[in-house]
Amino acid sequence: MSRLCGVQTGVSRRVNRTNLMLYQPPLAPKYGRMSENDMVAAIWEHKRRLSHRLVILGHHYQQDEVIQFADFTGDSLKLSQIAAEQKDAEFVVFCGVHFMAESADILTSDRVKVILPDLSAGCSMADMAAIDQLEECWQDLTSMSDDLIVPITYVNSAASIKAFCGGHGGACCTSSNARKVLEWALNGATPETGSNRKVLFLPDQHLGRNTAYAMGWPLESMVVWDPAQPRGGLTTQQVRDATIILWKGHCSVHALFKPEQVDMIRGVDPGFKVLVHPECEWAVVQKADLVGSTEFIIRTIEASPAGSKWAVGTEIHLVHRLADRFAGQKNVRLLSGVQCLCTTMYRIDLKHLLWCLDELAAGRIVNQIRVDPETRTLARIALDRMLALKTAQPVGI
Length: 397
What we know:
The chain has 397 residues and is of the alpha/beta class. It has helices spanning 29-33, 36-50, 64-67, 76-85, 98-107, 131-144, 159-167, 178-185, 205-214, 236-241, 259-268, 282-287, 294-303, 316-325, 350-361, 373-390, and strands at residues 6-8, 54-59, 72-74, 91-95, 113-115, 148-154, 171-173, 197-202, 222-225, 244-247, 273-276, 290-291, 309-313, 331-334, 368-370.
């Protein structure tokens, strides 16, 4: 098994240091011939038979046909923490994408088998930061500046990236706690006091920029590191002058939301409030009424009064689910006029969910996600630093 990450599919697989999409073998023809009703009935029967041995986790961006089987729903970190809390479960089927299943494996005991129904369900943002690129970036940055550099990775990243951050004094963050983690990384420094520390924030430049800007750091204090360019496309002076070094990565779904869409919504009906995810670009966030994680978006709409109108900038399945849930009570619509769909999440479907449960029922484990011990230990450090901040425990670099 590779030192960075392993995937159990019946054969050994070499590590994916460049974050290429993993291969999912074609399913048997019978799955293509089954009706939706037959697949739904079979999945419910597997859940009944496997009982407490099985926990199915469903990310908010999953299709309704899949989310109906989830024992728990949530964002990626919440679901991984839920997985870690399961005392009786032997199998955790993670209906999400690859980095989420990795995080679940990192946080669960060795006894628990974490399964991803379709190995090709990756994340384009996570794939924008490969470990080889990060190692080269680190060598360049530490040669260009004498300041202490703290690497912070969004949980939407590969286990190898989390492990690098854990091994270099850094931490993970989520969209809901990114500010707290940045404050810790900068040791309480403010734009007024300045800092002899820098943060390397990856892989999502927009979450890093939006969070740092909300903390008062001007855009001039930030630079973008392009891993495709020599030395990130930056001069030594640019690196020395910067406090926040943003990796050139983004979410392909949230990149579809544009500031002119906000203007259009307000032009048609000023009664709409615009609520967006912080993975959206800075110009969109600046025009929005509210900005927050998927959990924040859900809670905000839940708590809003009857008759509220919301234009939401996040993945379409979550928005449609909220619209259906509050139909006749509140007006919830997608901010964009185009389909903002996470196509890799969409790879988790009834056929693949049924297939992995069929195999479990037959005593065979397929698509098990296993992070090797060295990577797991260091990635756990990065996750634990973040979790300690959440619980106000002392954390050191």
